[in-house]
Amino acid sequence: MITVILTIHIIIAVALVGTILLQRSEGGGLGIGGGGGQGGGFMTARGTANLLTRTTALLAAAFFATSIILAILAGNGSSSSSVVDEVLEETSKVPAIPSVPTDQ
């Protein structure tokens, strides 16, 4: 089960990186807009930006969901409930150092 979710998680991460790189930055970047005034493209610059923004939001939500699912599945296998409990168990096993009485 974890392997399937982890595989989906990796695919979503790669798609998210690709979608982010396609978006136009303030300096132009790797945007697929094709320039400012060209009208014969696949979509307008505004339509492309809206599509990529929505795709990024969906992929980000899926990435967070798979991250939470993986964290829950990883937490089910742990036996101890707290680090403090483990420390208390270790300190109770250590023998106490006998105190030396002081003469006054």
The helix tally amounts to 3
Sheet with most strands: none
| Helix content range | 55-70%
Amount of beta strand: under 5%
Task: Give the terminus-to-terminus CA distance.
Answer: 69 Å
Shape: elongated
The ordered H/E elements are HHH
Low-confidence stretches: none
Radius of gyration: 28 Å
Describe the structure.
By secondary structure, this protein is mainly α. It has a domain at 1-25 and 44-78. Helix content is 61%, strand content 0%. Helix 1 (2-22) packs antiparallel against helix 2.
Which features does this protein show?
104 residues; 0% strand; 3 helices; elongated; 61% helix; mainly alpha
Protein topology:
Elements: H1 2-22, H2 45-75, H3 83-93
Short description:
This protein has 104 residues and is mostly helical. Helices cover 61% and strands 0% of the residues.
